[in-house]
Amino acid sequence: MSKIHVSTTVNGDAVEYLCDPRETLLDCLRDKLSLTGAKEGCGTGDCGACSVTLDGRLVCSCLVLGVEAEGKEIGTVEGIAEGDVLHPLQQKFIDYAALQCGICTPGILVAAKALLEQNPDPTEEEVRFWLAGNLCRCTGYDKIIRAVMDTAKDMREAV
Amino acid sequence: MALDDLKTKDFAFVGTRPNRPDGLDKVTGRAKFGADAYAPGMLHGAILRSPHAHARILRIDTSKAEALKDVKAVVTRADFSDKVEFAPGLEGEFWNVLENVMAGDKALYDGHAVAAVAATSALAARDALKLIEVEYEILPHVTDVDKAMLADAPVIREGAADYSVPAGMHPNVVRMHESGHGDVAAGFAEADLVIEDHFTTEATHQGYIEPHACLATLGMDGKGELWCCTQGHWIVQKTCAALLGIETANLRVTASEIGGGFGGKTTVFIEPVALALSRKANKPVKLVMSRSEVFRATGPTASASMDIKIGMKKDGTLTAAEGIFRLQGGAFPGGPAEFTAMCAFAPYSLSNVRQVGYDVMTNRPKQAAYRAPGSPMAAFAVESVIDELCNQLGLDPIEVRLKNASREGTKASYGPRFQQIGLVQTLEAAKAHPHLSAPLKPGQGRGISCGFWFNHGGETSVSLALSEDGSAQVMVGTPDIGGSRASMALMAAEVLGIPYENIRVTIADTATLGYNDVSHGSRVTYASGLATIKAARHAVEKLCERAAKKWGIPVDAVKWENGCAVPSGPNAGDFDPLPLADITANMGQTGGPISGHFEATPEGAGVSFATHIVDAEVDPETGKTRVVRYTVIQDAGKAIHPTYVEGQYQGGAAQGIGWALNEEYIYGEDGRLQNSVFLDYRIPVASDLPMIDTVIVEVPNPGHPFGVRGVGETSICPPLAAIANAVSAAAGVRMRNLPMSPPRILSALKADG
Ligand code: FES
Ligand code: FES
User: Fold this and answer.
1) Which SUPFAM superfamilies match (chain B) (predicted)?
2) Which of B77, B90, B124, B614 is the most exposed place for a label (fewest CB within 10 A)?
3) Which residues of B touch A141 (CB under 8 A)?
4) Higher pLDDT, B3 or B722
5) Closest chain A residue to the Cα of B258, Cα to Cα
């Protein structure tokens, strides 16, 4: 099958790749652009480890085709920090030990950042339901939820 | 280890909560996990799997796949070493693993590998699988543990049973364990109340979010490189070398960052296949499992069928206990029948106790360890009966457990006498915890349970090298699953007396360090920690020697304090403290590089106990259960990094909640797994759980220099029982079968009328 040329923007940078129409955006990010921060935990949209933003909307990149990225803006975990300054969520996840193995962390950070952008003051229940699509098998979520709630608080106080 | 070696207080670093050294890598997406490796010219592998639960493989025709231009190699069983002998029973574990990673004469379960392809792209590899023709003769199958023991059950493999199995049992029963002491019949006669009951648990999967992945290179020169996500790369090295018929030292294995294991990554599945493909194609081959492959073909835990009988006096004294445990471990020997039986009654001091375990084969994937293998099921059955005895005799469940609790000196149900242990302390902490006295709402119930796990030492090697600027690098061989680099650095800092930040901990590959057992048995902080401490002490001895030489005094007149060599007393002489960095600055001129080593198999892992308290709410209309409050109380011996200890407690509890309420392997009549994706095999998500409170009890383990006990596994031992007791209290009916899914609860409520 002949490949399709795709031009898109990832974390603010213009990029191009050739992809098979069956390849997912996750495959393209990882295998063609060497952005391996997004992980494949299931490939069926159930684990959230592949979470990215597509024109600002939170999506599972395993459920988006590589060709669908044409002309869009993609945001991945690699673009969360501003240069050498970590996003407050990233710092808080380290401070709170909100990760054990860390495989779920990129997806959870992308998802939590998207939450705080639209709801700077979420309740615990709102955080839990927003992150219900991001599986973590190690932590029992306790420290993750606390880290997100506390980051929200810090960010509110900072404005 | 001598007790005077034990340091239990006045720590400078141990017990603090610094950020983990690999934190930045893991929050920026920079950390490299199993599937994150690429090599120039790399091919992609894919595995063809049996759709049948039990079938003879009559013919495999790979010619059409091989004819494809993009396909560079196809392997079947014939491409592995023929030197791996079949031996009956557990002795032939390499053969079992070979048989599991690539089927021989028969496919033994739905998902069993039968052939594999390497092609220029992952899509091409998957396409090629469709062109491989396999002719099967379908055989009768069995997936249920009780049915597999019946006389008419199909035989999975004749001759797999070992000496322990009495004559007359079905050939699917491959091992039997029996232990105990006293006279149980006499004990039951003494009791005021005896309860006998039957319990079952379903197989659950470890459910790590990272599927198995590897990148293998094996050249025509017989030398190989393997990158993979594993809990132990030396066992991968040893097993792959045996299966491929190469020398162990010629295969270098590097452990990637690991995205969860929980026991499920302590063996090999795809690694030998990738190496065989690489050898045949003469190119690097990357092989990554899909989630469905993870469920169908990697180790779930065993399922269990258990009979428990316990006698109690009116005052709560246990008089006797007996248990029969049947564990289904898939199509190979290895179900944790012994562990299940041995853990069952360990929390209690019993004069009369007997436990029997059976390891039973069925047409399911080969079970793998899952966090304290066997113990959670046993605790579920035993603690449910104890709860029922307390209910019927009107006794307080904590007081009864305290009255019968194992303590230092108690003869354990499985044989030896306990050393210093912390069960009583966890029960006392539970008694004092506000959770226990908090009011319950209507429809809610409270359950408690104790849990026990052995913990493990294992072969361990650690090297520590000092740099000229006074920083230190520590090489350990146990993959970091949950923050262990931080714990190792804290322990090294404690001994060396240099800042935590100046110590870099690396997970060494198999070529750069001696053998290390797998990260399992809750052994990492215990064994690699002990080895790190000893390696650091070894380096300190050399530092003291250099100081003694410089000062011209005997080495035993020098001691190490706060990162400096100092004279050991006024008679030793009057010298200013000599900091570590001053000694290392010119170590090249004073005798050469300074490093410390430790290699041994430490035996003092010490056992571990926990007590959990759970409140559950059952909706009588839907049968849905919600866990509304959860408290974990566990003895850590000494918490090196308390935040990560809490994390282990919370993670174990969450997995236990899934096991108790939701998770199960569901097989159809056709023997096929029906729920091999996360949508259908539902692990707890954030909105399912409450915050999980933790209490760290510290009763030092005399077998570790700082008193550490492993903490990783014990946290999953009490939840099944604690939740079952809470749900039974809330629903007003005893729940004997896991998972307590809504349909099960509804039918129990209905049966109760
Ligand atoms: S990999 Fe996309 S949701 Fe799991
Ligand atoms: S930290 Fe391991 S899956 Fe979340």
Assistant:
1) CO dehydrogenase molybdoprotein N-domain-like (SSF54665), Molybdenum cofactor-binding domain (SSF56003)
2) B90
3) 654, 686, 689
4) B722
5) A101
Average pLDDT, chain B: 96
CA angle B518, B519, B522 (to 5 degrees): 125
Residues B659/B204, Cβ–Cβ less than 8 Å: yes
For domain B374-455+606-752, is the CATH number 3.30.365.10?
yes
Residue corresponding to tokens 């926990």: B610
Indicate the number of domains in chain A: 2
Q: Which residues of A touch B122 (CB under 8 A)?
A: 27
Both structure tokens of B731: 């629903």
Cis check: omega of the bond before B642, within 30 degrees of 0: no
Asked whether residue A106 falls in the same domain as residue A57, the answer is no
Domain that holds residue A27: 4-79
List per-block mean pLDDT (blocks of 10 residues) for chain A, which spans 159 residues.
93 97 98 98 98 98 98 98 95 98 98 98 98 98 98 94
Can you tell me which residue has the tokens 């199509």? B331
The SS3 of residue B507 is strand
**CATH number for the domain that contains residue A75:** 3.10.20.30
What is the CATH code for B6-31+457-600? 3.30.365.10
Given a cut of 70, whether residue B660 has pLDDT beyond it is: yes
Alpha-carbon distances, residue A18 vs A7, A12, A60, B332 (angstroms): 9, 19, 21, 45
- Comparing CA positions, the residue from B489, B481, B469, B568 lying closest to residue B535 is B489
A145 membership: H or E segment, kind and range: helix A142-158
Tally of CA atoms within 13 A in the half-sphere of A136 that contains its CB: 34
> Do residues B741 and B678 make contact, with C-beta atoms less than 8 angstroms apart?
no
N-to-C CA span, chain B = 59
Nearest CA to B613 out of B600, B585, B632 is that of B632
* CA–CA separation, B720 and B370 (whole Å): 14
User: B6-31+457-600 with B374-455+606-752: one CATH topology?
Assistant: yes
Residue-by-residue DSSP string for B177-209 = EEEEES-HHHHHHH-SEEEEEEEEE---B---S
Pick among A138, A139, A149 to test the B interface (most B CBs inside 10 A): A138
Cα-to-centroid distance, B426 and ligand 1 (Å):
39
Residue ranges covered by each domain of chain B: 6-31+457-600, 374-455+606-752
CATH number of the domain that A128 lies in? 1.10.150.120
